[in-house]
Amino acid sequence: MRTFLFNHIALSVKDVDESIAFYQKVLHLKEIENTSSNSKTRWLSLGESKQLHIIPRPDFEVKTNKAVHFALTTSDIDSFVSYLKELKIEYSDWLGTANKDYIRKDGIKQVYFQDPNGYWIEVNNDI
């Protein structure tokens, strides 16, 4: 039987520098070397050998909804939500209520927000 492990997420973005700055500022992701090519695609570490690849597509328009997202977890979601407020980044619960978190049936707290290109990101405390 084959087994698979998660490796990376790739996002097409209009402005690579703006996206890298956003992910470094908001999620404190560290930039790592793009070992696959000499392209303008840049990589960020998600930890544990997982990566976020930021691919330049200046004419690309993101059309997605909250159901299409990636999720990260933190042990201190309350301080992260405070940080979003400090940065004036709008966030919402699953239903779309502005500046509100959501508590799932299993007790996990989560919030959703968007990056500069419109991609949805969930942060939760499912540690």
Automatic annotation (TrEMBL):
Cross-referenced Pfam families: Glyoxalase
Domain of life per record: Bacteria
Gene3D superfamilies attached to this UniProt entry: 2,3-Dihydroxybiphenyl 1,2-Dioxygenase, domain 1
Domain VOC, chain residue ranges per copy: 5-126
Protein name: Glyoxalase
Lineage per the UniProt record: Bacteria, Pseudomonadati, Bacteroidota, Flavobacteriia, Flavobacteriales
